[in-house]
Amino acid sequence: MTLRRRILLQGFMLGIAGWSGLGSLMPLRPGHAQMAAAGRLSRSAGSVVVVRGGSEMPVNTGAEIVATDTIRTGADSRAEVTFSDGSVLTIGADSEVVVAQFAPDEAEANAFLDLLSGIVRVTVNKATGWGKFDVRTSTAVASVRGTEYLVDSTDAASAVFVVEGRVAVSSRAGAGTVVIRAGQGVDVTAEYVPLAVKTWGAKRRDAALARVTFP
């Protein structure tokens, strides 16, 4: 893991109350209130681990997911989180994502997911009326209201592809923002390079979707 990712993870690791369904693995720390579940692990295959309060624990289908949790998948693994509003996050193999914020019931509903590595597929429930629903990587921010899309992240670049709806993709290097539609994708590097929207061919599209589909 790069130094940048390690620092980011440490910034999100807060003391949180016990783990529903896993006994008393995480006792409540003084001064920390129990947090409501952002969602649950609705499906899993292979190795799935959650980091909470600095502790790493393997989890199974049905486990609660709360804001600030980090979810990691191993090789040939998948995880699916169904959030409290019905939005769905599918995490591919060898991936790591932080549920930085999930607040659908606030006056302005906001959700922020930090994809540290790997690939995710997101189906956003547009009925929630999101102010922001962002997937953030080291090079890009993908913002939506209600749609289905995937984000693939490595140290060097990110790729965003839209299955349905529209997504605004911004370069963290300041190279602009583009709106991509169903069937389109964009690659975003750490360099100041203008964003080029492209229609993905069947080979690239199908390969990416296969990585966030359960066998």
Protein architecture, described:
The chain has a single domain (3-211), classed as Jelly Rolls (Sandwich). The model is unreliable at 2-33 (pLDDT under 50). With 215 residues, the chain is mostly beta strands. It has helices at 3-12, 202-211, and strands spanning 39-45, 48-52, 55-58, 64-65, 70-73, 78-83, 88-91, 96-103, 109-123, 130-136, 140-144, 148-153, 157-164, 166-171, 177-181, 184-189, 197-199. The longest helix is centred in the N-terminal third of the chain and has 10 residues, at 3-12.
In short:
It contains two helices and 17 strands. The protein is mainly β and 215 residues long.
CATH class: Mainly Beta
State the helicity in percent bands.
under 10%
Tally of helical runs? 2
**Whole-number average pLDDT?**
87
- Give the helices and strands as they follow along the chain: HEEEEEEEEEEEEEEEEEH
Radius of gyration: 17 Å
Return the CATH architecture. Answer: Sandwich
Coarse shape: globular
Head-to-tail CA distance between termini = 27 Å
Return residue spans where pLDDT drops below 50 for at least 5 consecutive residues.
2-33
Work out the count of structural domains. 1
How does the major sheet shape up? 17 strands, mixed
Count every beta strand, where a strand is a DSSP E run of 2 or more residues.
Answer: 17
